[in-house]
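Recall the central idea of this unit: under ordinary conditions, the amino acid sequence of a chain determines the structure it adopts. In this exercise we apply that idea directly, starting from the sequence alone.
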Amino acid sequence: MLDVLSDDELAQYGRMALDQVALERRWAWLQALLVAAAAGVMAWVLLAGWRRGFDWTLVPALFGLAVIVYWPWRSIRTRQLWRTQHDVVMGELERRRGNATAR
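Accordingly, the structure predicted from this sequence is:
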């Protein structure tokens, strides 16, 4: 797909990818708090399970744990995707510049 884009379009796509990374990082502080809360919930579930045995009353807490962790996990994956896109675009631009100077 990158072969059909011009250099300007590739550069614009690279900037867009970095903008998406920045948008995902905007809420990183809240996501870090959610991960810390998830660690606390997990510790509570393990302690409660150890004390009274694991039973169905802990299922809502485990479900809540999954809900709490999903957004930070998804955000990290999205940042990785856009960072990879940016790196590929920059590599393609470098390759084109190398080919242009070799001619």
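The chain has a mean pLDDT of 90.
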